[in-house]
Amino acid sequence: MAGLAGITGIAGCTGGGSSGGSTDTEESSDSGGSDEPLTVGALYALSGSTEVIGRPMMNSTELAVQQINDAGGIDGREIELVKADTASDPQTGIEKSRQLINRDGCSVVFGAYTSAMRNAITEIYVGNEVPLFYPTLYEGGVCREIEGAEGFSGEINVPQESLEWVFFNGAVPKQQIQPYLPWLMEEYDVSSFYLIGSDYVWPHTTNAVVDDFVQENGGEIVAEDYVPLGFTDWGSKLSDIQSSDADAVYFTTVGTSMVEMLNQAGSVGLVDEMVWAGNIMSEQEARGAGDAADGVLTSAPYFTSLESEANDTYISSYEEAYGTDTTPNFVAEAAYWGPLMLRDALVEYAPGATSGSEVKSALENPISLDAPQGTVEMDPGTHHATLQSRVGEFDAESGTFEVLNEFGQIEPSGITVAEGCLDV
Amino acid sequence: MITTIASVVPLQLADRVLISLTSISGLVLVASGLTIIFGLMGVLNLAHGALMMVGAYTAYAVQSAGFSPWLGIVIAPLVVGLIGVAMEVTLIRRLYDRPLDTLLATWGIAIVLQEAVTIAFGTSQKSVAPPIEGSVSLLGVTYPAHWAFIIVVTIVVMAITIGLFAYTDIGIMALAVIQDREMASAVGINTRVSDRTTFGFGSALAGLSGAIMAPLLSVNSTMGIAWLADSFLVVIVGGVGTFTGTIAGGILLGGLDNLFRTVISGYTSIAQAAVLVVALIIIRYRPQGLIPAGERGE
């Protein structure tokens, strides 16, 4: 359990003592390799439409790297972080990826937000054989064998991507929905759902999974409805939702459009009238909607309000370094523990790694880590992570989620990620 | 699975009409400042959305300092009006004859305002409370008081603005300056002051609209961009240079948007695209807009 030892080292370090980080020093000199710093890239949106989420992600990755270096690096090897701004634009993301790899010599890059960005930059990493750590929740889709996956009877058409060089540590729909929907239907006594989402791949895939679990549990989908990204004027749509007589609204709308939906739904009293649940709202959007989001439910691997030593370390060191202008959330948390997992993988399997392929081989091990959300594990067969799953209810007064139920660890494979599909 | 034809019962009809009126009012209110600055003065103001955004942030700042939301609605137009005057004095004044440069300059101002707000308030979205909570009973429908308030404010603002330009000395002098700067100057009107006041007033309206609409929106530094596009569309389709044109543009675009979205309720993207097609057809056959400006002064 190198992971556990590692994080204790960090917690100990910031707390005053130190133990974990230096225990493996012997191994590093034995295994040869480089003592030079390891160059690592961080590629997030520091400007443009997704800046609001890109900043806490960048801060979190930077914070993790600082903590690793303060605790002795990778067996004494320092991590050198090179930061780059995607400007929320896939074309810029491609250029910055090339710079990070070819000019700065990064052996691994943490970054990207949105599937559009990831799809645009993936080939750069495949072509240059450099691993990309992708911390955002997404629709899944490593392999095509999705039809008939266990616990899922529908068919989802996901793009086959060349993903051997990508490591995913954000949630796929199964991890958020499989335990959540049956719980929601029972706990809140809801059986009919109005699905409302933004019109792009993630909400469509998520709703296909939601649809399946609702029907399997004897529920009914009253409508599956999509609005364009950036949709603002919700009045008529809320009337549609109200007159549908559904028990619950399951929303997969994103960004400002989601905030405006909740603001306006709160205004017409619809948030109190029906159950509102989803799995994309984080602290950021919920605070943007304020009182209107009070009582809205969401499923996520992580909430800022969790009480654990690892989370206290994360939140307190984050606020100390970056203040409270930006808010960590479940995506930022994944951007935080990605580097910690890299450190643990390298310390255990390749302390002197310099090339992208050495880093990749090290990451392709069952590495377990005590992250702020709880125990997480990388699954070598799919490059996806086993994550925690829990449901939270937003409390407008404190601006945080109250955890209503813990579903424990959920594996990524099944439904949109076929088991062992990268093993070949 | 989706009901394509919504069953319209009378109560629902009243509800839909009210919702459409709020949509239309929002469009007209936000566009009203642009009617003055672009429609009357001819300044291609790409900072219009950013001015509206600053209005929303002013409302937020006032509320978060612990004051009443009403104070925010009063202060927002003052703050944004002053920003408008400062814009006019430093940049716009030098660019009245250079429309393309105005485009660049005002877009530059928009970026400066966005970044300034980000520095001052951070990147997180802000939540703004409405001045009136609760609901009212209108046409037999229980309707959010703030949504009704938006309709009332828009009617009042448009009435005052139309009255100002039609019946007051300041308004008539402003129109004279816009119509023929040299002649106005020759008869003793201070054109500098007049331009400054007109531009400031248009900006103040943008600020007011931001403060009024903020509770329904996601308040962030880029929120104005979508409203900038909508405002230009409303002004151009309605008829550049007339307040009645802007109202007509708002009624047409906001009304059709809600009508199409109600009739084909499962296909929001198609409904919104259809509205744009109608707008294009109107501009093709009525390039001066629905209610073109008359040949004033003749």
From TrEMBL, chain B:
It comes from the Archaea. It is found in: Cell membrane. One of its GO terms (cellular component) is plasma membrane. InterPro entries: ABC_transp_permease, BCAA_transport_permease. The chain crosses the membrane at residues 17-39, 69-92, 104-125, 145-178, 199-219, 231-256, 263-283. Keywords: Amino-acid transport, Cell membrane, Membrane, Transmembrane, Transmembrane helix, Transport. Signal peptide: none annotated. One of its GO terms (biological process) is amino acid transport. It is a multi-pass membrane protein. Its main location: membrane. It holds the Pfam family BPD_transp_2. Belongs to the binding-protein-dependent transport system permease family. LivHM subfamily. This is Branched-chain amino acid ABC transporter permease. It comes from Halobellus rarus.
